[in-house]
Amino acid sequence: MENEVKTVQMTAEEAARYEAFKAEQEKKAAADRARKDRETYGQLVDQEIEQAIPILQELSGDIRTVKGKVLDNFRQILDMKAEVLKLTKDGQKSHTFTNSEGNKRITIGRYVVDGWRDTVEDGIAIVKESVIGLIKDVETKALVNQIMRLVARDQAGNLKANKVLQLDKLAAELNNDRLNEGIAIIKESHIPNLSKTYIRAEYQDESGMWRYIPLGMTEA
């Protein structure tokens, strides 16, 4: 005798409760899978970090050692250059050395990074305050707009010293003591700082094009 398939009849209310139960179970299963995926992700991150850090520490140590060796080797050359060419050692921020064949060169230098005392904000405020009342015609308005751009900070919030130095020329045309006072305060607030020493190495390829030797994680 063939097995009979029994069909269970549910009321609408029972069917609704059953569908709600299934939906809740699926929701719990999805949440459990997501939790396990997050755990797996976290484990992978931990694993790769543990493997990467020692390698990067070794690389950093190697770079520091090589950089120190190159700088030590060139320190005597820099001293000799200053003596032979009668140069002030601290007066030049970068030095480029090229081999006799002219196909390899190394540059050693330091960048000047702009720093400012807190009084720079007072100077900027005085400049902005004083120039607004100097607008008389199209010409003076153009000068004022130029001055406002020169004391404006860039997207990173930095004030560029090379722009501030251009203020004197524009201010001379407006001939205003208060404006000149603000510019003087800004210039007196400037504190130039030297960056760490950098090394840049280049060589000429077969076609004569200069190529940088990548010495940082970004360039490599």
Number of helices: 6
Give the number of DSSP strands. 6
- As for the number of domains, it is 3
Please list the strands of the largest sheet in the order they lie side by side.
Answer: 1-2-5-6
Q: What structural class do you assign from the helix and strand content?
A: alpha+beta
Report the principal-axis shape: flat
**Main β-sheet description:** 4 strands, antiparallel
How do the helices and strands follow one another from N- to C-terminus? HEEEHHHHHEEE
Proportion in β-strands: 5-15%
Mean pLDDT, to the nearest integer, reads: 86
Indicate the low-confidence ranges by residue numbers. none
Q: Mind telling me the C-alpha Rg?
A: 34 Å
- Termini Cα gap: 78 Å
The helicity comes to 55-70%
Descriptive tags:
two-stranded antiparallel ribbon, alpha+beta, 220 residues, 3 domains, flat, four-stranded antiparallel β-sheet
